[in-house]
Design brief:
Elements: H1 2-14, H2 22-40, H3 45-60, H4 78-87, H5 90-102, H6 106-110, H7 114-120, H8 123-134, H9 139-146, H10 153-162, H11 169-181, H12 183-194, H13 197-200, H14 212-229, H15 234-249, H16 253-276, H17 281-284, H18 287-317, H19 336-348, H20 355-379
Helix pairs in contact: 2-3, 3-11, 3-16, 4-16, 5-10, 5-15, 5-16, 7-18, 7-20, 8-9, 8-18, 9-10, 10-11, 10-20, 11-18, 12-18, 12-19, 14-15, 15-16, 19-20
Length: 383
């Protein structure tokens, strides 16, 4: 009888109920809320769902992220090995390859002025950088946090790993992907506030056709120019342009399909669950996380506002040929931000089609965010 009682007692104490803290239950609640957003409202479900599930797992069973050196037998937890691929910037770089294989740079090539709108939207990054320093973060931490303003999750993870800010990677990634998912909610009020109805109704001239040669040369030229000027951007920009070259060359259909489908989805699963697993209660529930969330929101708003204001400036210079709404697409949430520009424009005039015009600043924003990350790496001497 004593043996049975002892066995049952051991089994009972092996359950998670005896090990969870109040913080763990709070994080489980957050995880369920993110799962609800991903499934019910389809807010970036491809990434938010695995991130939320990783958050759920680590707060029920913390050893799933146990480091190998902390283990008695030298074997780490399952998601720890996924996470190593984040630390070494492997998964974010592979995601960029997949994004490149799915992206049409034609609108940007047809209208190179879009680069200026993409650059203007990066203002939010540098605003967040100085804001983070003002709130007490060191330079490297501030740089890692600031990339949230570009609404680019993979770049945020990439830079946090490169700058050695792995302790902040969970809050940074969750904030970045949350704001990416909330683009349709956050951006429209500021877009409408800063533009007149007349400006929102502006119809832009049809973009010129882009030749196959231009499409092939673009990723090659961008890689050479950007990497020569800022070598630290090579991992991100290089993978982005390699994926695009797969697509535009037309001679490696199998590689294009693999990069944009099977590989992309495998990487998203590994990256999402491992990033979610960094959000244990101990790591996530603190004042730094709250600061990061608010800094990210402020940066995203600043980026949107700067893009629209620069769009208004271009509208003025071109005597009404540029719709300022496309400036908001300069943040690199592809293609969500471009769709929001289209939606707000269509609300003013249902016959106005801004999507392809907005895609130019949108893909320029992807390049711009990668360049911003490379700039911070160069500033802090990280390669």
């Amino acid at each position: 009888m004593e043996y049975i009682t002892s066995t049952l007692d051991n089994l009972l104490h092996q359950t998670a109920f005896f090990n969870l803290t109040v913080g763990n239950y709070v994080m489980i609640g957050f995880a369920c809320f993110f799962l609800y957003l991903a499934i019910r409202h389809e807010f970036e479900p491809l990434l938010l769902l695995p991130i939320a599930f990783g958050m759920l797992l680590v707060n029920i069973y913390p050893d799933i992220m146990r480091h190998a050196e902390d283990s008695a037998n030298g074997v780490g937890g399952l998601l720890y090995y996924f996470y190593i691929l984040d630390e070494y910037a492997i998964l974010p770089s592979l995601i960029f390859m997949g994004v490149g294989a799915m992206t049409d740079f034609g609108p940007l090539i047809a209208n190179p002025k879009s680069f200026l709108l993409g650059a203007a939207a990066q203002f939010g990054i540098f605003a967040a950088y100085f804001g983070a320093i003002g709130l007490g973060f060191n330079g490297m931490a501030a740089a890692a946090i600031s990339i949230i303003g570009g609404a680019d999750g993979p770049t945020s993870i990439f830079l946090a790993g490169k700058l050695g800010q792995t302790g902040l990677m969970g809050p940074i990634a969750v904030a970045a992907y949350s704001y990416m998912a909330l683009v349709p909610i956050i951006q429209p009020p500021f877009m409408k506030l800063l533009t007149t109805e007349k400006e929102r109704k502006i119809k832009m001239a049809q973009l010129r056709p882009v030749s196959k040669l231009e499409r092939i040369l673009f990723p090659i030229v961008v890689t050479i120019v950007v990497s020569l000027i800022l070598p630290t951007t090579a991992p991100l920009v290089g993978m982005l342009m390699l994926g695009n070259l797969f697509k535009e060359s037309g001679v490696v259909r199998q590689l294009t399909e693999t990069a944009s489908n099977a590989m992309m989805y495998i990487v998203v699963i590994l990256l999402g669950t491992s990033v979610g697993a960094t959000t244990s209660a101990e790591a996530f529930l603190n004042w730094d996380t709250i600061k990061i969330v608010f800094l990210g929101l402020a940066a995203f708003i600043f980026g949107t506002v700067a893009g629209v204001i620069f769009g208004k400036l271009m509208c003025l210079i071109t005597h009404g040929k540029v719709n300022p709404l496309i400036g908001s697409a300069g943040v690199s949430a592809v293609p969500m931000a471009a769709r929001v520009s289209q939606k707000v424009g269509a609300e003013a005039d249902p016959t106005n089609f801004l999507l392809m015009h907005a895609m130019g600043p949108n893909v320029a924003g992807v390049i711009g965010t990668a360049v911003a990350a490379g700039t911070f790496m160069a500033i802090y001497g990280v390669f």
